[in-house]
Please model this.
Amino acid sequence: MRKCFAAAFLLSVFAMALTTFADVARPNPSKEAKVVMHSGLEIVPDAQAFEARLEIPQDMWKQMHAGLIEGPGNTTLAQRIARSSPRTVLAGTFLFLSFAFAGVWLARSKQRNQRIAAALALGVAIVGAGTIIASANAGPPGYLRWQGLPSALTEGRTTRGGVDIAIVPEGSTIKLIVPIKRVTRTPGEE
Amino acid sequence: MQRAAEINLSTWRESRRLVHVNANWFAAAFAGCAVFSAAFASWLPLQLSIVSLFLFAGPHNWFEFRYFLSRLPLRFGRSRPFFLIAFSGIGLLTTAYLALPLLYNLSFWPNGDWSIPLAIWNTVMLLWIAVLAQLRGKQKRTRYWSLAFPVAFLLVSLNWMGPQLFSLLIVYVHPLIALWFLDRHLRRIRPEWLTTYRRGLCILPVLLLGMFWQLNTPTPIADDNGLFWRITQHAGAELLPNVSSRVLVSVHVFLEMLHYGVWIAALTMIGGANRFWDVKSIPLARHERGFPRLIGTMLVGGVLAVVLLWVGFAVDYSATRDLYFSFAMAHVLAEAPFLMRML
Model:
């Protein structure tokens, strides 16, 4: 029984931490550039071409256009949650209540199969909440894909990576900013 | 007393064989209807959506209303609090749902977030269902019902993360509730068919996967007029931009067809409701202390409402469609308490 209470207490603390963390103010977004979508970019060296060409699929163009007119469909779920503080607070509060009530139910349940059912329900809740939080940080940082760009251009190879498409208020040319970071390698690492 | 050795087993074996044959026919009919609906919904999703709503929306509501009347007890007795909360909840939530378009336009929502009233409505609905489950659990004496509040709070939390997505979830889950009603109905009326029916349900995920695989193309469905645009929006095309609108509309129409089929055909033909025009077939009207005139008047009023809906569709399909989906929330809500009574 003590273990059950300890587990319920830990889950409650975890839920409160989620709520508190969720309401931390986000850094102010840049007022200069507005990211309308994230996509993939492929840089193809072409020895036969005389002019650089930017090819945009038609569907992507429609999505970019939709992003300019602030359609609700072009923001991710995480973005929508993060942009509404009252909703985030209430979502966290009810998540906390769910954990707390389920914890009490688990502690008071006497039969083994009831405990299994409660543990499964709690597990689903934790995994669900964790998935939402972790989805923003999934995968390696995007700049790693661009590390080999200089050598790839020299050797005439194709490079693929992610790109944020941003609409800037000023300028007359399309600019491609490629993240090239110096990676310090430990001795013996190739 | 007849000795066990003298019992004629051939008759028993024959009846068991007939039960299996009937169950197999039922499963075959169910699977056939599901495959036909899936094929048609994939081929002409928008057209089928318009035609099926015109033909079946009103009648299926009438059959559902009749079914609920047949499940009402003559005296509420110990269930009085349950039914009081159920009916008052249906009334208040439906009224609030009709008022949502007015609430969207109020300016006091933080950051102009007009999805907050929708989230509040979803929250009240989920808590209402949790209270009903708690009351039902007191009669059933099993502890699983007391999990209603933790589950409801979890769903409320998800609702606040994405109120519009949660409402879209209701749009897709509601047609499937009819299959749950059929399951409980078979358990009471034809328990020998239950296993076959549940096996037959396995065809649904296969059909849904097949539809997704075939229709999830980058080309969106042509929603170039107001009515088609309404249908794609109702299926969630704007909320789920990464899913083909063709898939969304087709899957939604397919599920709606199943929903109509269960309420109009399956539940009517199975288990004694085939004389649906006979008011006396409803226990509430048949009983000597019952209300035959009231029940009869309500059913006739329902028929008139169905005819009125058809006239409305014929005059202005789009406006009637919007009006219907606003009022239809009442039947979505009514399913919750009546399903709980059958669990």
